Write a sequence for this structure.
């Protein structure tokens, strides 16, 4: 920097040099801050400075008796360095910390180096990630996270890395503007496709239910499928209305629209739970007990319970305008949904509720798969010996039980955009999967299919039949 005549840039670079004996008996602790730079740790110091913890392992592996520890704190905004091409994440306080010990590179540490980056509570939708600068990445270098573990906290984030180099804390937004717009476009197109195939599926189920003679269990299953697909249709319709009207409606109208969207989502979750319960009764309990007005009672639960939950949430004023923002407070999208002040309602009624349903349905799916395999081994099941039919039945049950919704739990972190794309596409195709599955099962060989379905559970003189 001095030779290049850019002495003014030294204001953004602060370095601490320490001569440390190789035979250290304790770890080396150093503090750093963007304004004061690095310094020796003062045990009485109670500031918001970050901390560096260098383990004894580093010094024991060195050959010389005395080594020089160099800790450098750089303000990359002033220096104009460490900028990745098309970087969307922000560097915390524009601060990069470089650590070198001796003259050789150090990596593969069993006891990692720990850097604590002090910060206030991070805004919503922001993910901290510990990274280091890799000059070999791309043409001009870039950030990598391999070898580093991120431990976020309320007052700071701890980075544990197995090597020494230049480190920082990247604040990655869950969504940027371009990704959000692309996702909204994909979701809007997917909703239109899903609504069309939901109508096809409901028409097909009603047609085969009225046209052909099925035993009562199969007729109940068809009624269940119609209600599930109807809830999917209403959910996609509510999303399209929400996307088109939010941001330009009266607050009360937005609250009603948010409650309607929440109601349709809970209906969809509830009907997937009822599909799992029905599958449990058919494959596990295998009881031929007649329940008076069974489908009507299922409808009371499937459409009534979500109304009760939404009514309670609406009574405490949970619904209104919800905006998705970037770290620099740029609004990505407006939605009529559960407001930011009542996010606990979202975590309980959506995340918690679906989490329980997903665990139950996956347990039922596992038991059903095991039961089907054992029945096929005894020859009790006819008509499903072809591998493609077995795979189709499994995929159809997977969609009926709402497994594609579980991808939303994987959208936390740096893979959010990719998983969100996958989540959006698969849930848009859910209605298509169900439609194809039902057509292959019930048509055109309806009599043959019914016969094979009626033998799935029949074993040791037990009754009932269903897919």
């Amino acid at each position: 920097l001095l030779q290049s005549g850019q002495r003014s840039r030294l204001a953004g670079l602060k370095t601490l040099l320490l001569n440390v004996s190789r035979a250290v008996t304790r770890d080396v602790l150093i503090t750093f801050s963007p304004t004061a730079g690095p310094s020796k740790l003062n045990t009485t110091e109670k500031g918001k400075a970050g901390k560096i913890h260098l383990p004894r392992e580093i010094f024991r592996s060195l050959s010389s008796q005395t080594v020089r520890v160099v800790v450098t704190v750089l303000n990359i905004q002033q220096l104009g360095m460490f900028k990745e091409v098309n970087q969307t994440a922000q560097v915390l306080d524009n601060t990069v910390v470089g650590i070198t010990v001796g003259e050789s590179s150090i990596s593969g540490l069993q006891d990692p180096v720990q850097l604590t980056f002090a910060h206030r509570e991070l805004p919503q939708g922001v993910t901290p990630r510990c990274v280091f600068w890799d000059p070999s990445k791309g043409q001009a270098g870039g950030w990598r996270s391999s070898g580093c573990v991120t431990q976020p906290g309320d007052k700071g984030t701890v980075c544990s890395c197995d090597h020494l180099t230049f480190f920082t804390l990247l604040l990655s937004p869950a969504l940027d503007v371009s990704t959000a717009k692309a996702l909204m476009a994909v979701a809007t197109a997917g909703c239109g496709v899903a609504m069309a195939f939901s109508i096809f599926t409901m028409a097909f189920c009603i047609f085969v239910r009225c046209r052909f003679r099925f035993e009562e269990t199969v007729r109940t299953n068809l009624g269940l499928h119609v209600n599930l697909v109807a809830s999917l249709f209403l959910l996609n319709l509510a999303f399209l209305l929400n996307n088109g009207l939010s941001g330009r409606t009266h607050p009360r109208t937005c609250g009603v629209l948010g409650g309607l969207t929440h109601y349709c989502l809970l209906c969809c979750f509830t009907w997937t739970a009822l599909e799992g319960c029905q599958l449990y009764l058919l494959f596990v309990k295998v009881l031929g007990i007649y329940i008076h007005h069974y489908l009507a009672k299922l409808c009371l639960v499937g459409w009534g319970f979500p109304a009760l939950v939404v009514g309670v949430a609406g009574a405490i004023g949970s619904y209104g305008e919800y905006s998705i923002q970037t770290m620099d407070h740029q609004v990505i999208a407006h939605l009529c949904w559960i407001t930011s002040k009542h996010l606990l309602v979202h975590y309980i009624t959506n995340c918690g509720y679906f989490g329980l349903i997903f665990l139950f349905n996956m347990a039922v799916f596992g038991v059903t798969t095991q039961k089907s395999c054992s029945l096929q081994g005894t020859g009790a099941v006819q008509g499903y010996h072809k591998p493609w039919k077995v795979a189709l039945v499994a995929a159809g049950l997977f969609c009926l039980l709402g497994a594609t919704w579980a991808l939303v739990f994987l959208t936390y972190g740096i893979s959010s955009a990719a998983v969100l794309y996958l989540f959006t596409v698969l849930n848009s195709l859910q209605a298509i999967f169900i439609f194809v599955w039902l057509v292959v099962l019930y048509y055109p060989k309806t009599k043959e299919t019914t016969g094979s379905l009626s033998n799935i559970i029949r074993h040791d003189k037990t009754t009932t039949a269903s897919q």
The chain is about 45% helix and 20% strand. Confidence is low (pLDDT under 50) at residues 1-9, 446-467. Residues 128 and 198 are 40 Å apart (CA to CA). The longest strand covers residues 66-75.
